[in-house]
Amino acid sequence: MSVIEIKNLVKIYNGSAVQVTAVNGVDLTIEKGEFTAIVGPSGSGKTTLLNMIGGLDSPTSGTIVVDKTDLSTLNKRQLVDYRLNNIGFVFQAYNLIPVLTAKENVSFIMEMQGAKKDAITQRTKEILESVGLGDRLNSRPNQLSGGQQQRVAVARALASKPKFVIADEPTANLDSKSTENLLDIMEELNKKENTTFIFSTHDQRVVNKARRVIVLEDGKIVKDERRG
Amino acid sequence: MRKQMIISISWKNVWRNKKRSLIVICAVLLGTIAGVFTSGIMKGWVQQRIDSVIYTEVSHLKIHNPDYLLNEELAYTVPDQSGIEKYLKSDQNILAFSKRVKIMTMASTSTGSSAIMLNGIQIEDEKAVSKVWKKIVSGGGEYLNNLSKNQIVISDKTAEQLRIKNFKVTSEVIDSLKRLEVPASTIEKLSNIENIRYKTAKLFKNELKTLLSKKENKEYGKQIFNASVHYRLRSKIVFTFNDTNGKLVYQTFRVCGIYKTQNTMFDQMNAFVVKDDIAPLAGFSDNSYHEIAVIAHEEKDIDELKSEIKTQFPELSVLSWKDLAPDAAMMTDFMGIWYAIIMGIILFALAFGIINTMLMAILERVKELGMLMAIGMNKKRVFRMIMYETVFLTLVGAFGGMVIGALLIGFTGHTGLDFSSVSEGLEAIGYSAIIFPEIDPGFFFLVTLLVIGTGILSSIIPARKALKLNPVEAIRTE
């Protein structure tokens, strides 16, 4: 079952002097439960593509259909709701709320969705235990290591059981041990909860773990490989 | 999203940069103290003026023959005297009333003369409506009593004009100065003028200037001056006036007491005698009078009471204190606006600091705000989060300021604030030189509302800045 269907997607940035085509006619279908890495050199259009899938940026032409909803038909307010209810985001720099504890950071999205208090408490505990931070529920981000912070970010992205998770260079700021650990956790959650993951990455270790690798060059898909 | 979550984040955000937040909080705290305390002084000042207006000058209501108000002639006494008296006695809203005979006279002593309104009163009735009997100055004798005839209570100001107030350094004065810890060397200098009587304040002040050094005069001059005041009690004053037939009448009264209120104009004009000592001489019957001063149980009932009496006795003039002292009445009405103006100006000035701080906070948090918007926080919630944060920042300082301001008012309301360096100016317009600040509890409600309003308004600019952020660009910000 496909979660995301992208057809002939184009994104052109009109600079003051030059026109840059960041994404140039991408056709792509992401299936439920896929663990996909989008790779390519800097400027190849990875982040632009993820931003458009995430509803943060709008395409110049082409369509993105998520679960039968064409994103181009949504207004700004609807796009905010779309992001809240369908996508989990993991950022390169963790981007946790510094004044909140790990537990509060994780429950934040569910709070915004208006979930019931008991359900939030239970899910928060469960997901933080899944990422190995069951004993750090009340720690603030500044009391956690980089790897631990990114695990909280993964827990936050997955807590509300989104249709898919977008992770933009999630391991770029981590050492190799933390990277391995984080990838194991994400892989396990992908299998356990059947969550769809889409990464943009330069990191070969992420590529090695991915079951589908899409290579972008100059805004075009030059390779789309499924493994195992 | 649960409101508590946003409130909790906003509250925690206030304390993210403690130093910066504390600076703004301190500014709001000081501003609020200033606003609360200034309003307290103003309120105390006006309230004292109103108390003075009601309880020494005009009482709650005054009833006259309407012609008396146009021309203060002896003949214009209150008509239907027994009817109005009976009515006032039976009205449940009335606490007390006092009937007065008022005669314009020329008072003279061997050394001075002055025009004075003689108020012929019945002692117990008058004590129930006017506090003049409580305003007898120290060393100024006592209020009227029924034991001796032809006694008079005059004001300190009148005593000065009639040269009944003198200055003399006696052994008692020296003893009292020693108790006031005036240095022995200064007191020593005063022995040169011991028991010499100075007829006017000016002569005595000049003497002190030549006797004492500039520094001594500055530090102890006022104490010496006040301690040396000497009233020549039992002095005779001759009053000249026309009786009801137009015949010139003379009557001598002996000074038994000297009073001083906070209104020099009132003091200068009024002296008090027992009605029976003056009325027959002026040609009045036992039950003739020019004025009835009325004190009600509740001040709020005054207007109703006034119209009731007017309806019952249309031939009489009934005036409330608001009619007789419109300046004081206007001040009362103005108080609410005054509070709002003072606090409004202070908070308006503070708003710039608050906006600046919040803008800095937003600029520091661009990446975080971008993330919040990216993961699905809508504009309404972002705005609310920033608004709560601004309101908290303002409210914390304002709350502290209100508490400290209230304590300050509580303390100074007990001890009083001495403005005697400008007392002559204040007393000339009927205001006390010692102010006891006070405040309505409702004022704090007004301040809280104003502070919340300031917080909300101050949050608009920073919030707009935040809402203009593009999440994609904001997340990439370093």
CATH architecture classification name of chain A? 3-Layer(aba) Sandwich
Estimated share of beta-strand residues of chain A: 25-35%
Please state the oligomeric state of the protein chains shown.
heterodimer
Mean pLDDT metric of chain A: 91
CATH class of chain A: Alpha Beta
N-end to C-end Cα span of chain B = 28 Å
Output the structural class of chain A.
alpha/beta
Strand-helix topology:
The complex is a heterodimer of chains A (228) and B (478).
Chain A lengths: L1 E13 L4 E13 L3 E5 L6 H8 L7 E6 L2 E2 L5 H11 E4 L11 H12 L3 H14 L15 H14 L4 E5 L7 H18 L2 E6 L2 H6 L2 E6 L2 E7 L2
Parallel strand pairs in A: 3-8, 3-9, 6-7, 7-8
Antiparallel strand pairs in A: 1-2, 1-4, 4-5, 9-10
Helix pairs in contact in A: 3-4, 3-5, 4-5, 5-6
Chain B lengths: L2 H12 L3 H41 L2 E4 L1 H5 L10 H10 L3 E15 L4 E9 L1 H7 L6 E6 L9 E5 H6 L3 E4 L2 H9 L4 H7 L6 E2 L2 H11 L2 H14 L1 E3 L4 E7 L5 E12 L4 H6 E5 H8 L8 E6 L5 H11 L4 E4 H4 L1 H39 L1 H9 L4 H37 L1 E2 L4 H6 L5 E2 L5 H27 L3 H6 L2
Parallel strand pairs in B: 3-11, 5-10
Antiparallel strand pairs in B: 1-12, 1-13, 2-3, 2-9, 2-12, 4-10, 5-11, 6-7, 6-8, 9-10, 14-15
Describe this structure in words.
The complex is a heterodimer of chains A (228) and B (478). With 228 residues, chain A is an alpha/beta fold. Chain A has a single domain, classed as 3-Layer(aba) Sandwich (Rossmann fold). Chain A contains 7 helices and 10 strands. The model of chain A has no long low-confidence stretch (mean pLDDT 91). Helix content of chain B is 58%, strand content 18%. Chain B has 20 helices and 15 strands. Chain B starts with a helix and ends with a helix. The interface between A and B is medium-sized, with 25 and 23 residues.
In short:
The complex is a heterodimer of chains A (228) and B (478). With 228 residues, chain A is of the alpha/beta class.
Q: What attributes does this structure have?
A:
heterodimer, A: 228 residues, alpha/beta, Rossmann fold, 4-stranded antiparallel beta sheet, 7 helices, 10 strands, globular, B: 478 residues, alpha+beta, 3 domains, 6-stranded mixed barrel, 3-stranded antiparallel beta sheet, 20 helices, 15 strands, elongated
